[in-house]
Amino acid sequence: MEYYSDKINKLIEELGRLPGVGRKSAQRLAFHILNMPKEQVQALTGAITEAKENIRYCKECCTLTDSDICPICASPGRNKRVIMVVENSRDLAAYEKTGKYDGVYHVLHGAISPMLGIGPADIRLKELMVRLQKDVDEVIISTNSSLEGEATAMYISKLIKPTGIKISRIATGIPVGGDLENIDEVTLLRALDGRVEL
Ligand code: ZN
Questions:
Q1: Ligand 1 centroid to residue 31 C-alpha, Å
Q2: What was the pLDDT predicted at 176?
């Protein structure tokens, strides 16, 4: 720590807060940034600030977007009667990449985790229930196959059951504990096609 000046240490510390960035990577990044041309650094910080200030939650599906309604919800080509529930916008992107899903999404921004003190009120479940008051044929629960993802799937299915809307869960084939975003498209599609009704 004391080898560097305060300002460099501060930069290392802030970079080190990012997920997956350990102390060593933070140092490497910090010195890389300090060696970058000034305009490039400004472009980077500008992009971060710009994104943070203009990104909001889609009023329909709660995904992160820069307009009131995200492009997927706004698209007339999407089937609004089928809603896929995912934990975050990255999982949504994973399914979008397959190009084979034409329904819409609902992004929870997390999963229920009693261990971490995250309850149903801490994720975007209320918003989902409001959406289900419209004409919806099926809710596909595509939360991760982690303990939290399974607990969340279970909770949602119990919540939706009384509405009579068809509920399904993506099939296995997704490794247990696996994050959707790291799974290849073929496996994702197989999991979607093989979904089971709950
Ligand atoms: Zn949306």
A1: 39
A2: 56
The total of structural domains in the chain comes to 1
Where in the sequence is the domain holding 95, given as residue range(s)? Answer: 78-169
Residue 75 CA to ligand 1 center (angstroms) comes to 9
What is the mean pLDDT of the segment spanning 152-162?
93
Ligand 1 centroid to Cα of residue 112, in Å, is 22
pTM of the full predicted structure?
0.76
Whole-number Å distance, alpha carbon 155 to ligand 1 midpoint, is 23
CATH of residue 110's domain is: 3.40.1360.10
Residue 38 in any domain: the answer is no
Rounded to the nearest whole angstrom, what is the distance from the C-alpha of residue 83 to the centroid of ligand 1?
Answer: 11
62 CA to centre of ligand 1 in angstroms? 6
At residue 121, the pLDDT reads: 93
Q: β-strands 64-65, 56-57: how paired?
A: antiparallel
